[in-house]
Amino acid sequence: MCFALIILFAEIKRKGKKMLGGGGSYSCGCLNWNRVSTTTDSIPPPLHYFSLPSPIPHWPPGHVFATGTINLGELEVREITKFEFIWGTDIKYKRKGVSFFKPIDIPNDYFCLGHYCQPDNSPLRGFVLVAREVTKSQLPALIEPTDYSLVWCPDDWTEENGLGHGYFWLPMAREGYKALGFIVTNKPAKPELSEVRCVRDDLIEPIEPHRILLTSPSKVAEFSVWKTRPFQRGMYEKGVSVGTFFCSCVWSQGEELTISCLKNLNLNLHAMPNLDQVHALIKHYGPTIYFHPDEIYLPSSVSWFFENGALLYKKGESKGERVDPSGSNLPKGGSNDGEYWIDLPKDETEKKLKKGDLESAKVYVHVKPALGGTFTDIVMWIFYPFNGPGCLKIGLMNYQLNRVGQHVGDWEHVTLRISNFSGELWSVYFSQHSSGVWVDPTNLEFIEGNKTIVYASRNGHANYPRHGDFLQGSSNLRIGIRNTAAPSKYLLDSSENYEIIAAEYIGEVVVKEPCWLQYMRKWGPTTVHESRAEVNRILNQRLPVTLRCTARNIFDKLPNELYGEDGPTGPKEKSSWFGDEKC
Questions:
Q1: What pairing do the DSSP bridges indicate for beta strands 435-439 and 397-400?
Q2: Cβ contacts of 44-51, under 8 Å, gap ≥ 24
Q3: Burial class (CB in 10 A: 0-12, 13-18, 19+), 335
Q4: Tens of pLDDT along 367-426?
């Protein structure tokens, strides 16, 4: 133990105050701007495209799902996934660069809206949308730019060395129109005006920078490149991601971006899959969820939980009411007002309920439109009757906690994001306590074709794309809650064990929501035990005085559910039910 603390203290002393800030630097290091170009003096790198392990099947017929085009009203768009390399950076100190691409094989009558960018540390996988007008209006939906503005080029550019550099151009649009992306060249000459189109203002939506791809030190200003996404996202939002990037030398947080995204004005969401296609998607992509070999608190079906003794309590009443197996006697609608909650019986069945019942377990599926109906989110909710205590990590030592993290009723989920252009799995969201992360298929494990693997952490049930130890807290200080995930014989195949509980765009006649889904109150009681005191006691006993304040600050930022201080709400009360995932 002393040895671990010595190492930890030395690490803090070496890194100094910068470590304690908790934030990471976005700097990508020093750049070699002459890495490669498409000139005759150098050869562009081969493009290594990513593909899923197995071919995408022919989906059941119906509507225009996976037919390649989507009608947005006045515009029709196609997804382009083939690219020509234009220019890239070289990052020193073993950090990876980024590359910029031009979409190719654009069908006749369709027009480019901007170029694509991605990091070099993964196979090429992305898209940009191209568009054409399908409904004539008084003002055209698409027009050529009037000019280009040079946003950035390397500091050492001259006429003599100009061929080996990247040049970033913003299309300048006339009043009433706006660009949706940037153009990148490896020569100083402006692109042709016909290279790209700008879009009329009433057909676009605001965007926001999502994830930074590149930050370059410059003599004049710092140049940065971001991925983008619609500013408003959710089941009823209309913003459509174009797949382009945003770049700037002068942009600051809160300012309006110089580019936008498209808007879906076609209200019938005709590109969404029908019910037969949804079943086929789940059968093809449904992940296998592995639980830790030492997991005690396994999932169950909701009906098993109710049938085996779950009780509904009402504020002011000391005795609970047995919940009907269908949940028909649960209060419907309203909000989480604290008037009702579910709890375990205080008899011999309590232990049985806590352990769950893997044989009855299934995932509860919510199908909804994403990014203006150009993607489908298949949200798979997993119910656990009980969430076990956490494990505290301090340096190299682990301390199994007694009560911290315990609570009745745990809802976790995994979301499959499917492209409505092709039916291809585009990304997977892994919920991790009160937040989560989107993971690209290039970083997923697969089993049985295109089915992903999900690892649920021991006791806490956070979901991860890899097995191992994951720290919720400060990775620099190595202090936080330890989440351990590993494969075992305990697993849940969501492609077979599922129930579709909601698909609002299809209609309630086709997909009827179960009674318990309308229960908006807590699935577990509010606890009053001194869980934070348990953490403080360990910190006081195991850490030197100089580290205690920092450690407490870290734990104060962790979500309350890790302390078991409040009962969780059900799926429909989560912000992601109608909105986008937290990340």
A1: unpaired
A2: 44/85, 45/85, 45/88, 45/99, 47/83, 47/85, 47/124, 48/123, 48/124, 49/81, 49/123, 49/124, 49/125, 50/122, 50/123, 50/124, 50/125, 50/441, 50/442
A3: exposed
A4: 999 999 999 999 999 999 998 887 777 677 676 766 667 889 999 999 999 999 999 999
Q: What is the 3-state secondary structure (H, E, C) of 423-492?
A: CCEEEEEEEECCEEEEECHHHCCEECCCEEEEEECCCCCCEECCCEEEEEEECCCCEEEEEEECCCCCEE
Q: Cβ distance 247 to 232 under 8 Å? A: no
3-state helix, strand, coil in the chain (%, to 5): 15, 35, 50
Q: If we measure between CA atoms, which residue out of 433, 393, 462, 474 comes closest to residue 564?
A: 433
Count CA atoms within 13 Å of residue 464 on its CB side.
22
First to last CA, the chain: 35
DSSP assigned state of 176:
T
Establish how many alpha carbons lie within 13 A of residue 216's alpha carbon, considering only the half-sphere containing its beta carbon.
Answer: 25
Token pair, residue 291, equals 């639980």
Among 356, 357, 375, smallest CA distance to 367 is for 375
**Is the distance from CB of 309 to CB of 303 less than 8 angstroms?**
no
CA distance 243 to 181: 9
The rounded Cα 491 to chain-centroid distance in angstroms is 23
Q: Give the C-alpha separation, 513 to 526, whole Å.
A: 27
Q: What is the pTM of this model?
A: 0.87
Question: Which residue type does 428 have?
Answer: V
Whether residue 78 contacts residue 110, with contact meaning beta carbons closer than 8 Å, is answered with yes
Residues in the chain: 583
Give the angle subtended at the CA of 494 by the CAs of 491 and 500, to the nearest 5°.
145
Q: In degrees rounded to 5, what are phi and psi of residue 508?
A: -70, -20
Please, which residues have CB within 8 angstroms of residue 495's CB and are 6 or more apart in sequence? 282, 283, 284, 285, 286, 287, 288, 451
Query: Helix or strand or coil: residue 96?
Result: coil
Report d(CA 548, CA 529) in Å as an integer.
22
pLDDT, average across residues 431-437: 89
Taking the C-alpha atoms of residue 65 and residue 275, their distance in angstroms, rounded to an integer, is 11
How many Å apart are CA 337 and CA 331, to the nearest integer?
A: 12
C-alpha torsion 568→569→570→574, nearest 10? -110
Q: What angle do CA 429, 68, 185 make, to 5 degrees?
A: 80
Q: Burial, 333: exposed, middle or buried (Cβ in 10 Å; 0-12, 13-18, 19+)?
A: exposed
Domain ranges of the chain: 31-263, 275-388+408-525+569-573
- pLDDT bin (cut points 50, 70, 90) of residue 168 is very high
CA distances (Å), origin 177, targets 143, 266, 407, 529: 8, 20, 53, 59
For 257, counting Cβ atoms within 10 Å of its Cβ (0-12 exposed, 13-18 middle, 19+ buried), the class is: middle
Instruction: Give 59-93 pLDDT, tens digit per residue.
Output: 999 889 999 999 999 999 999 999 999 998 864 43
In sequence order, the 6+-apart residues with CB closer than 8 A to the CB of 175 are none
Structure tokens, 524: 């577990």
| 259 neighbors 228 (Cβ within 8 angstroms) | yes
